Amino acid sequence: MGLRNLLYGTYERQLARTLKLDGNTPRHIGVILDGNRRWAKHVGASAADGHQRGADKITEVLEWSMDSRVEVVTLWMLSTDNLGRDAAELDALLEIICTSVETLAEDGRWRLQHVGDASLLPAAASARLQAAAERTSGATGLHVNVAVGYGGRHEIAEAVRSFLRAGVDAGHSLEDVADTFSVEHIAEHLYTKGQPDPDLVIRTSGEQRLSGFLMWQSAHTEFYFCDAYWPAFRRVDFLRALRAFAQRERRLGK
């Protein structure tokens, strides 16, 4: 065990140095935090323990991102599909998520933003997430989107509705608004408006699908799928994802 840790440490440091010299770092990384329950089952722990260990991993990943000069990280912590889970498990998960986000806010290094439909969440949870984000409004460090109650299809539908409402509120007919509608209008009404689209999306746990994560924003995104469950995600796994990104030729649709 000691020799393996030593070898991993040496490899990790070499990989980090190589990436810093390369300089090809993603500005925005999206992370699908997957595998908490499967990790818990693997180690004989409860689902709540798995979610807690997953929450404890977040600060580490944000520190790795900051050290790698990433500007924005979007963490998918709870999907709209997850809202249909067993009530007891969902309540416990929301408590862990809210406490985790509040801990990030207290840290002071990150500027937090809730992305997702707050109206789908219990009022108390929504209020806690909003208050935590507001406490970090003056932070100048890494921008962290906490995606809670988030679904990609839901976001796009909300963006369209928002655009239509804005046009009608400005005195235009619905027909006129529809005639002027363009793809640029979608981006202007997304949760992530004003932010760079994700350059890289990482999903843990071995699943190789996006499940609707940042559907609109990820048109030209690179994807990296890692076998490690989220609570077991290591810095060397993160650096490997950055290396894979740096080695790819990004055509950006051209």
Global outline: globular
Low-pLDDT parts are none
Distance between the termini: 47 Å
CATH superfamily assignment? Decaprenyl diphosphate synthase-like
- Estimate the strand proportion: 5-15%
Structural class: alpha/beta
Q: Assign a percent range to the helix content.
A: 40-55%
Q: Any idea what the CATH architecture is?
A: 3-Layer(aba) Sandwich
- Text of the CATH class: Alpha Beta
Mean pLDDT, all residues: 92
In DSSP terms (H or I, runs of 4 or more residues), the helix count works out at: 9
Total of domains = 1
Q: Could you state the order of secondary-structure elements as H and E?
A: HEHHEHEHEHHHEEH
Overview of this protein structure:
With 254 residues, this protein is an alpha/beta fold. The protein has one domain (2-247): Undecaprenyl pyrophosphate synthetase. It has helices at residues 2-22, 36-43, 47-67, 87-107, 123-135, 152-169, 174-179, 183-187, 235-247; strands at 28-32, 72-79, 111-115, 143-150, 200-203, 222-225. Helix 5 (123-135) links the parallel strand 3 (111-115) and strand 4. Helix 2 crosses helix 3 and helix 3 (47-67) packs parallel to helix 4 (87-107). The N and C termini lie far apart (47 Å).
SSE layout:
Layout: H1 2-22, E1 28-32, H2 36-43, H3 47-67, E2 72-79, H4 87-107, E3 111-115, H5 123-135, E4 143-150, H6 152-169, H7 174-179, H8 183-187, E5 200-203, E6 222-225, H9 235-247
Parallel strand pairs: 1-2, 1-5, 2-4, 3-4, 5-6
List the defining traits of the structure above.
6 strands, alpha/beta, 254 residues, 6-stranded parallel beta sheet, Undecaprenyl pyrophosphate synthetase
